[in-house]
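Consider the following assembly input.
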Amino acid sequence: MSEILLNMHGIQKYFPGVHALDNAQLELRAGEVLALIGENGAGKSTLMKILTGIYTKDDGVIELYGKPTEIQSPSHAQQLGISIVHQELNLMQDLTVAENIFVGRESTKGLFLDKKEQNRKTDELLKSLHLNITARTVVKRLTVAQQQMVEIAKALSYNNTKILIMDEPSASLTTAEIEDLFTFIRRLKATGVGIIYISHRMDELKEITDRVTVMRDGQYVDTVNTAETTIDQIVQMMVGRVIFDEPKSHSNVAPDAPVVLEARNLCSDMVKDVSFQLRKGEILGFAGLMGAGRTETMRLLSGADPKTSGQIIVNGKEVKIRRPKDAVQAGIGYLSEDRKRYGLCLGLSVADNTAMASLDSLTSGPFVQDGKIAQVTQEYIQKLRTKTPSGKTLARSLSGGNQQKVVIAKWLLRDCDVLIFDEPTRGIDVGAKSEIYKLMNQLAAEGKSIIMISSELPEILRMSDRVMVMCEGRLTGELDISEATQERIMTYATMR
Amino acid sequence: MDKLGTKKFDLQKLLAPAALVILYILFSIFGNNFFTFDTLKNILESSYYIGFMAFGVTFVIIAGGIDLSIGTVMMCSALLGAYTFKQHDWPLVASLILTVGVGTVFGLLNGGLIAKLKLPPFIATLGTMMMAQGAGSILTKVQSQTWPTATEPVGGWFKPVFIRSELFGAKNFPVGAIWLFAFFIIAALILHKTKFGRYNYAIGSNEEAARLSGINTDNWKVGIYTLCGAFCGMAGIFYAAAYTTITPGTGNGQELNAIAGVVIGGTSMSGGAGSMVGTIIGVFIMSVLKNGLSACGLQAPWQTFFTGLVVIGAVLLDIQRTKAANRVKKG
């Protein structure tokens, strides 16, 4: 067994009214990738903030390289060899790779910057990490994955880094880019660096991590060897209950169910001649790789972007959709993958967001009927089991899953019959995920028709009655759920 | 938890009114002849035209925009009203309608430039600010224009109706205050109780999410700027009632007084948050400060200095408040 770099145990942390960490513990060995997982609010970030000196612990011991150590500040943590790569990229887009890596500790010659020296050091570092990037490249010309690597290189440029924390590094990467990242991580761990890897993506854990530490409600649950455990077991540890993730075996939709929505030959810059039908009560999955044109297709359907040609037929009648208002009037509601940017007014209340698309029918004379809005909001909070203190709570303060429910409530109140879910569970933790699934099934059973874009194949197989696969703006395959497998979908998804 | 949260929120809402009352009391103690009916009347009267501009621009700022043209549009409206009344013998009522109309047209122009032609609000209204100033001078041939005084045979009712007259047993009753409060109530109802107001907040909070919810955001934005323009036209009437003579080429800088009032009232410059009550209190805080400092023997430069201080203080307080609110949520 290799050297133990870090041993945190008995860690306590209190916030006003919250016992954030209760006897949390964590052990990291040299040259391993340790997954740290748990639902949102399980205490992962708090524990990492204590490790990086952002918070101070209220009790407990941190043994670093065998010695009990008090970590006083982020810069102290850095001196001790602890680096973190944050989830969001923090690079300055208009500066070069070298300038980003050495920001705040630039090489100087007297009064002036020594760019030559700085670039040389950077190139050396990038080369040692086998990165095919040069020091003089302006960051905004790099892909997201490359930028992620630069962030990691920056963390490692503090030449004593022994412990590297990566907070959801794959969240914004495509499948190919994730492969690059993993290759990189494997090389890194061979040099003896211990890596703490935080992720929501279960499938990745199997591929890249050696051990998994699970947290729940601020407490340590268990640490297991990844190779000796199944994803189901890990998920069960996370939520403390069993979640069934069986694929759907057959479609729940009668073959003669009426067609509620038909797209004929939709075209735009990114969408090439897409045609499909959606039946009443159906969940139609849209699978494909990132950039396959699925979101773009749905933005045409929902009027968010203009189409160059093609027809949209709702309940047998063609509707002209030029702007979102037209789509909403035709009963099409779009739930974006990026709820914060496209779904919600975060600074407004749950009630305001719920009523946003339906104010026309909630107005009497010149005035908005606030009483009625409060009442219907309350109804939907109960129906969807949204966890919020009240309808007056700001949307900003809800968790991802509950924000998603507010967006669903908005479209249900508007009486939309077609709901387009774009990555409905992105950024939502496992427990809330299964609730969203249940809700979608319930909606379909009630006669709503659902289009679901998802990049997670298990999600596609579990939810869809029928699967459409896209690649590079075209529809490349259509599968009934009874004949769909991950392999067949991937074949279509990579069909040029 | 919920109960506590609500209580806290109410306390924050009381901050601006409390500041207004405290200022008033302080000046009453330390100022010369401050606690009099005349001073109160002065405070009200110096709030009229700024108040109307501030009502209008509150809508714009909550929608996430800005309108720099309000000051010169107000002057241009007042100039053209007086010009048509005095030089072209229009009936006073027609000139008053024209005054509001000019403001409305400039508002419509702003809205079109911003919502339809996608100009940034700062640039679009910077342009119309200069255009309004120029247009007023050109159309009046750079001549000062006067509105009728109370003793004039034609239109002598102008001042008594809009600024002060014998009423309720007082010789100089501030009639303008009745107008100000009436339009305050109308503006508050529009902002807080109508669909227009609700969309106003939605656009300021997240315009794209509002658009994707089926709201025709461009059209509503045109409406918001047009309403602001109409309020500036009305501000023109009250400026005229207070100062009688309108000089071409002025009005620059007045917009900043109105915007300062809005900001002191707690409306966020980044949009999506604010209230009409806040705005009227912000405007009153500025005029109490102005009249109070002069009662303490401190003249115009001091008033400007302190107003600046209050603006910075109000915004700092707002930032602290937001920070505190966010901290509570995270914990």
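Chain B touches chain A at residues 1-2, 5-6, 189, 193-195, 197-199, 201-202, 205-206, 208-216, 272-273, 328-331 (CB under 8 Å). Ask yourself how this observation constrains the way the partners meet.
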